[in-house]
Model the fold of this input.
Amino acid sequence: MIITTVFSIIITMNGYSLEHLITAVVAGQNDRAVSIAEVLLKNGTSPESLIQDGLTVALRSLDAKCTAEEFNLLEIMLAGRAMMTVMDNVIATHLLSSSTIEPVPEKTIIIGTIKGDIHELGKNVVKMMLKAQGLRVIDIGKDASPESFVKAAMLESARFIGVSSLITLTMPFIREIRPLLNDTGLDNVKILAGGAAIQQASPSDLNVDFVAQDVFDAVHYLNGLTS
Ligand code: B12
Done:
């Protein structure tokens, strides 16, 4: 009761809550979503919370709209666009103004969505956050073959590979990356995997070094290896 009252007072003082942000993103209202996110950030909501409790929750709430019975491409695409507008115009701007970290070549990561999967919003969030952490991020896009991850790692002298997957059926392709790396002599390259489809899998299931629950989990893991 007391907690609910305090929460209501905070919302009233700020004018907006994360719930408003979620509603605006789901409705595909770019400008409104940006304004709300700006107010929330100004009033002390962290970028982490905006991403995890706002933007990600908004997109995941469209889960049912992505099934064969109820597929609504337009609605999902508009929500995805609103989400990335907030990422570009509010979160990235905030992160860039609060840090001056230059990308470090020794901290290069190849990032992409695995073969058979065209989801890219999560990957793009990860890309932006890792850049803000000073990593040099090479994005090889979506529907990327295991071979293309390894080729890019070789060409770019990467230390890490980040694989995104939201489609469960793509798991066998993720497992192929490690043996291909070993065949090329890149045994030291660490593989991180993330995305809604594989969060429950263990690293050994996927033949990778780390399975991230979200982007902040990945940042924590990488900081442990690079600092
Ligand atoms: C948006 C969406 C779409 C959009 C994608 C737009 C785009 N440009 O990306 C569109 C409409 C195109 C789409 C298409 C399809 N979709 Co869809 N989609 C979704 C939805 C609703 C949200 C996904 C999303 O963007 N979330 C927001 C982001 C921020 O979250 P995230 O991706 O999880 O990322 C976070 C973490 O996971 C992590 N992370 C993500 N990647 C990585 C990578 C690394 C390296 C690291 C460290 C971390 C990390 O960090 C991010 C931030 O914390 C999900 C529902 C759900 N529950 O996820 C279904 C969902 C993923 N889609 C699904 C399906 C079935 C499809 C289609 C096959 C539908 C169809 N009938 O054609 C097609 C895909 C075709 C294909 N071959 O890929 C299923 C997948 C089921 C499964 N497990 O296999 C889901 C779960 C919906 C459902 N319940 O059935 N989809």
Summary: The first helix runs from residue 2 to 14. The beta strands are 104-113, 135-139, 160-164, 190-194, 210-212. The two ends are 44 Å apart (CA to CA). Residues 2-98 form a domain with the Methyltransferase, Methionine Synthase (B12-binding Domains); Chain A, domain 1 fold (CATH 1.10.1240.10).
